[in-house]
């Protein structure tokens, strides 16, 4: 049971979704511990190890007007001894929101072993350490990419998951299976333990069962409305909206639209872009679902789509962001990008109903918030304030 006010470990808590999730947790009354290897965010030129407070967490403190530093550990999830030290230092950790991992579709094709090592082995080490410290609640960062090229749009959670898209996508599929297997095994173990205790006339003192929420993100985009926190990708962004934002601030010349010959309304791919703050709130909602379920003796492993339920094409997004920026952003059409599928639009009704969560921010808000962040921080956290 992780009642409000208990401590949640957020792995990858300095990353884009992770940092917004840390903020949402703190705003919802949870205590947070953050672990991140800082491979995909900058520290604004400061040395995290020296200051022990990465820039992303400093911005969260500023937004919340809190002086107390957020407990942070510059740890890589493949470093199991260091993972153990974090749990030893925080025996009040009651659940983990697991966002840490490598996340580039294209890069994963070039570095598959790194992706399997970090995403798969790293997550297995995390699950092992959680088990050893009796922390058996996880909210896992999965992805719509697990649906491959789905047969039905909008996509329900019952749509088959396929390990065909990329090594990155395969890590998400494998991890969903790994977590599901763990949950099933834990229920069997609990039944055997309870029978042993009953045969001995002893009390049941441990609950070995796991609860897991597998959150299939569609396309998180935008930034916190404060304008001081947002996506801070290292190098040239792979994803559409951070790339477009860099074009808007003049760091990149123009957007390359990867193909306009798809079977869609304007030939460009359709995606379900959800505001990153809505996405972050979805993690808190998932945690609260676990708390509700376990208070009723239910221990589940279940996948939920985090999406709006509305598809936007690449050109729709160029238009929407150009409107926020106040000028037409330049782009050119090129060939298709390997691995892209025509349409990934969520059916979010299961999350709406069972997580009591719904994406509420509009496309205009997403674009306005992204523009406010990017124009204030043209070089992300490296922009000196
Ligand atoms: C969206 C659309 C591109 C860049 C992937 C992963 C998902 C998540 C997000 C990690 C596509 C087009 C993009 C550009 C373009 N991963 N595009 N020019 O591919 O839907 O999802 O990234 O967070 O798990 O699967 O997102 O933003 O890369 O692309 O035309 O410079 O924009 O072809 O149609 P995607 P994306």
From TrEMBL:
<dbReference type="InterPro" id="IPR036291">
    <property type="entry name" value="NAD(P)-bd_dom_sf"/>
</dbReference>
<protein>
    <recommendedName>
        <fullName>UDP-glucose 4-epimerase</fullName>
        <ecNumber>5.1.3.2</ecNumber>
    </recommendedName>
</protein>
<keyword id="KW-0299">Galactose metabolism</keyword>
<comment type="pathway">
    <text>Carbohydrate metabolism; hexose metabolism.</text>
</comment>
<comment type="subunit">
    <text>Homodimer.</text>
</comment>
<keyword id="KW-0520">NAD</keyword>
<keyword id="KW-0119">Carbohydrate metabolism</keyword>
<dbReference type="InterPro" id="IPR005886">
    <property type="entry name" value="UDP_G4E"/>
</dbReference>
<dbReference type="InterPro" id="IPR001509">
    <property type="entry name" value="Epimerase_deHydtase"/>
</dbReference>
<comment type="similarity">
    <text>In the C-terminal section; belongs to the aldose epimerase family.</text>
</comment>
<dbReference type="GO" id="GO:0003978">
    <property type="term" value="F:UDP-glucose 4-epimerase activity"/>
</dbReference>
<comment type="function">
    <text>Mutarotase converts alpha-aldose to the beta-anomer. It is active on D-glucose, L-arabinose, D-xylose, D-galactose, maltose and lactose.</text>
</comment>
<comment type="similarity">
    <text>Belongs to the NAD(P)-dependent epimerase/dehydratase family.</text>
</comment>
<comment type="pathway">
    <text>Carbohydrate metabolism; galactose metabolism.</text>
</comment>
<dbReference type="Pfam" id="PF01370">
    <property type="entry name" value="Epimerase"/>
</dbReference>
<feature type="domain" description="NAD-dependent epimerase/dehydratase">
    <location>
        <begin position="8"/>
        <end position="298"/>
    </location>
</feature>
<dbReference type="GO" id="GO:0005829">
    <property type="term" value="C:cytosol"/>
</dbReference>
<dbReference type="GO" id="GO:0006012">
    <property type="term" value="P:galactose metabolic process"/>
</dbReference>
<keyword id="KW-0413">Isomerase</keyword>
């Amino acid at each position: 049971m992780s009642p409000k006010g208990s401590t949640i470990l957020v792995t990858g808590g300095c990353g884009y979704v992770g940092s917004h999730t840390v903020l949402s947790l703190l705003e919802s009354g949870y205590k947070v511990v953050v672990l991140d290897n800082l491979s995909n965010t900058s520290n604004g030129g400061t040395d995290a190890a020296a200051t022990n407070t990465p820039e992303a967490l400093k911005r969260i403190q500023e937004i919340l007007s809190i002086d107390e530093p957020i407990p942070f550990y510059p740890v890589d999830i493949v470093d199991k001894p260091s993972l153990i030290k974090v749990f030893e230092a925080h025996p009040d950790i009651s659940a983990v929101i697991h966002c840490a991992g490598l996340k580039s579709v294209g890069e994963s094709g070039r570095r598959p072993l790194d992706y399997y090592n970090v995403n798969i082995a790293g997550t297995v080490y995390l699950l092992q350490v959680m088990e050893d410290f009796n922390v058996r609640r996880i909210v896992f960062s999965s992805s719509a990419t697990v649906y491959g090229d789905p047969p039905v749009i909008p996509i329900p959670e019952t749509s088959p998951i396929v390990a065909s898209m990329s090594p990155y996508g395969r890590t998400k599929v494998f991890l969903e299976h790994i977590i599901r297997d763990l949950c099933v095994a834990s229920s069997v173990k609990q039944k055997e333990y309870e029978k042993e205790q009953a045969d001995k006339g002893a009390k049941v003192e441990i609950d070995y069962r796991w609860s897991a929420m597998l959150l299939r993100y569609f396309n998180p985009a935008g930034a916190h409305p404060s304008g001081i926190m947002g996506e801070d990708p290292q190098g040239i962004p792979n994803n559409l909206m951070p790339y477009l934002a860099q074009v808007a601030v003049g760091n990149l010349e123009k957007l390359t639209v990867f193909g306009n010959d798809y079977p869609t309304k304007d030939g460009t791919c359709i995606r379900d872009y959800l505001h990153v703050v809505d996405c972050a709130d979805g993690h808190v909602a998932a945690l609260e679902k676990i708390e509700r379920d376990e208070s009723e003796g239910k221990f589940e492993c279940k996948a939920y789509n985090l999406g709006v339920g509305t598809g936007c094409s690449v050109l729709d997004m160029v238009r929407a962001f150009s409107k926020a920026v106040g000028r037409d952003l330049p782009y050119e059409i090129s060939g298709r990008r390997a691995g892209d599928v025509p349409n990934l639009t969520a059916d979010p009704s299961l999350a709406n109903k069972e997580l009591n969560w719904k994406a509420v921010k509009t496309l205009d808000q997403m674009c306005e918030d992204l523009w406010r962040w990017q124009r204030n921080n043209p070089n992300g956290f490296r922009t000196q304030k």
